Amino acid sequence: MNQQNRAVKSSRGTHEPVTQAMLLRCYAALDAIRRGYGSRELVATLGRYLLIAGELCHLGHQSDAIGRIAAARAAVVRMDATEQQDRVWRIDDADYSRLCVAFAILDDQLSVASLDDIAKAETSIAEGLLGAEREPVVVEPI
């Protein structure tokens, strides 16, 4: 096996466990919330990975899916608002479906994005959260 093939195989060997762990966190958090075991930490996990999906769209990985990612982010905001009002973590079927679609998109993105692009997306989010003034999120009825 030549050095280039070995490097590709090694890269894929590193890539898959990282991306599968990311997806496992997404689906575990979503499942827990769906079953009534939500928490602020789990909702933050959903939001974090939706932000990563959005950044990957901006980096050219399924850029046409940005609207579906935004719809899923709005679902997370609604879920948070419901919890603040009712003190119960709840997600309706339509929002659950939006999140499933968004995480399927993230799965596709992660399967083709390089670890470098994934790191760029995460860095961009961290810099945005640390340095930028946050704009209020406006949630409109669907």
Folded structure, characterized:
It comes from Paraburkholderia hospita. This is Fis family transcriptional regulator. With 142 residues, this protein is an all-alpha fold. It has one domain. Helices cover 77% and strands 0% of the residues. The chain contains five helices and no strands. α2 crosses α5. The protein is globular and about 40 Å long. The N terminus is likely disordered.
Q: Count of helices? A: 5
What amount of the residues lies in strands?
A: under 5%
Rg (C-alpha, Å): 16 Å
Instruction: State the major sheet.
Output: none
Report mean pLDDT, rounded to a whole number.
Answer: 85
Pattern of helices and strands: HHHHH
Q: What percentage of residues falls in helices of 4 or more residues?
A: over 70%
Chain oligomer state: single chain
User: How far apart are the first and last residues' alpha carbons, in Å?
Assistant: 55 Å
Question: How many strands?
Answer: 0
Key structural traits:
mainly alpha, 142 residues, Fis family transcriptional regulator
How does the SSE layout of this entry go?
Layout: H1 3-34, H2 40-58, H3 66-86, H4 93-112, H5 115-131
Helix pairs in contact: 1-2, 1-4, 2-3, 2-4, 2-5, 3-4
